[in-house]
Amino acid sequence: MQTANLLAAITPQSRGEPDSGIVRAAMYGFSKTGVIPLWAGEGNLPTPETFSRPASEALARGETFYTWQRGIPELRDALARYHTRHFGRAFDAENFYVTGGGMQAIQTAIQMIAGEGDEIILPTPAWPNYAGPLRIQGSRPVEVPMDFANGGWRLDLDKLFGAVTPRTKAICINSPSNPLGWTASREELSAVRDHCRKNGLWILGDEVYSRFYYSDRGEIRAPSFLDVCDSEEQLLLGNTFSKNWAMTGWRVGWLQAPKVLGQAIERLIQYNTSGTAAFLQRGCVAALDEGEPFIDNQVTRARANRDLVTDRLSSLPGVSFEVPRGAFYLFFRLEGMTDSMATVLRIIDEAKVGFAPGATFGPGGEGFLRMCYLRDAGLLAEAMDRFGDWLGTFKR
After folding, report:
1. What 3-state class would DSSP assign to 193?
2. 61 contacts: CB under 8 Å, gap ≥ 6
3. Each residue of 243-280: pLDDT tens digit?
4. How far apart are CA 380 and CA 377, in angstroms?
5. Domains and CATH numbers, the chain
6. What DSSP string describes 275-286?
7. How far apart, in whole angstroms, are the C-alpha atoms of residue 21 and residue 39?
8. How would you classify residue 187: left for phi > 0, otherwise alpha for psi between -120 and 50, otherwise beta?
């Protein structure tokens, strides 16, 4: 059978999703020498030995068999303890389900609540891995562009709630946001909660970057739906070990959901991955129980690097942005840029700096570039020097 016929034999959804602009930029950058890579959503530090050692020990003693679909009890207990510490109220291990990374947590949530033709409302610019899984399973992402004006991003709640139709199943909120760094206030989260309660909708929350919160009042996490919602209502929260604990390659995350959904979640995990390796979960227990000093260091580094790049970019002509309150990305507008993908490739070639194209983050993203600043400060400074020099050659 010819290649074209093979492609025609698979579903339209599986062949129709666009390639990731982030991956395209990375693959192009990897083919060059001397490029400073700021396209990916991860820091530059490896997993601390404190976390990796328990995983290595579990592997060495033979923890290589099938395990609990919902996650090993020790990890679910550790997740409950972690949340109890950070929210000041008791959490039950039965509300936590271990997944193959935050991506599987989001995918599992989507599979539970959205079917063929159903809709989930999504403020954009947004991480593209929400809309893709929805379209692949025949559901529809309803993308509501946020407003960028007066140097800042704003979520228009009237516009968000006005997008609700009889087919709407959920509103998805990512806060702190990838790629924006925008962070919802407690009042905004309460408004979303009230609207979803009134209309019988699910809240699909992504709070992966909640610990990367740059408060001037000493808070160590961003406002959360867990501040304003009960654990047993229509709330599904996806999270991951990737960002806080420098474990992107481990592919372990969790879904927080009402207990009554436990058997449904277990079945979906069974049919998707049949569980997460037990020895990896041992390392995650250590991360939760012993990882606070590492997180503190991560956030301190990220804040200093945020200040470095925003200070450098603020003096460049044609560049505008909001100083992010959370996450570890800067999403900046480049005046006169109409094709962010082509511009990213050009900057890689000419300046040896790798950004992610804004267009890959959906409506409202074109005209912007994203950089990850959880990197080595010296390399960031060098990247800003290179980009500043290149900007003098950019014709608007």
Report:
1. helix
2. none
3. 999 999 999 999 999 999 999 999 999 999 999 999 99
4. 5
5. 3-47+293-390 (3.90.1150.10), 60-290 (3.40.640.10)
6. ---HHHHHHHHH
7. 10
8. alpha
